């Protein structure tokens, strides 16, 4: 169905995927549509951040391959915090290869993502069948990027959305625009005080992504983990995001 002018509230979204349902359940319960991106490089920083922001997020987005001292002890500890504070573990691996290779990257190697992640990101660039290897997780397909000069133009986005809509393990997409209601929309590149960085990142406000893009979940990295008080910042983003979401329903 084509995107509608009026947005559908989270509880009215027809999401089949169990992980998508879980995200919506956490969002409504916690009054949060915030995902914190924990782009820190040590286990101790990551665990501290998870403790501080856990009550205020529906998921913690990770880049486990940037963590210097990665171990499954870290994963075990994160899982305990995630269970207690009710958020999902979202590995932003951005798979972008043929199915067979992605399956190896997903299940094997150092990180064994398949053993612990609730959600992963993947580029749909290799086509629908390549995404079938991600079993028992929610796949978020990247159809549009936030950075200046990204190659994800309208033609690519249309084709990528088609792949996403036809893949049963895809629960949603990353994009900087409104998408069909059958998909959950995740939007990174959100910051309350900055317009961008010197490496191509471009930021929007929570207000804009919820009201103009009808996003379901905003993703905030440096706005939270680089702030003086991560917990206070998480609350600030949670409140700004949830209020913008509520206002976008009218
Ligand atoms: P930031 O510190 O809020 O700029 O971090 C944004 C995070 O979202 C970071 O982990 C990126 O890898 C991720 N991201 C993004 O910024 N833009 C995109 O289009 C995609 C992911 Br896809």
TrEMBL record:
Active site annotated at which positions? 92 (for ompdecase activity), 94 (for ompdecase activity), 97 (for ompdecase activity)
Q: Which GO terms describe its biological process?
A: 'de novo' pyrimidine nucleobase biosynthetic process; 'de novo' UMP biosynthetic process
Annotated transmembrane regions:
none
Occurrences of domain Orotidine 5'-phosphate decarboxylase (ranges): 33-237
Record key words, sorted: Decarboxylase, Glycosyltransferase, Lyase, Magnesium, Multifunctional enzyme, Pyrimidine biosynthesis, Transferase
Q: Give a yes or no for keyword Lyase in this entry.
A: yes
Look up the record and name the pathway of this protein.
Pyrimidine metabolism; UMP biosynthesis via de novo pathway; UMP from orotate: step 2/2; Pyrimidine metabolism; UMP biosynthesis via de novo pathway; UMP from orotate: step 1/2
| Cofactor entry | Mg(2+)
Q: Please describe the quaternary structure of this protein.
A: Homodimer.
Task: Tell me what this protein is called.
Answer: Orotate phosphoribosyltransferase
Q: Which organism is it from?
A: Moheibacter sediminis
Q: Which gene encodes it?
A: pyrE
Full-protein interval shown: 200 to 449 of 449
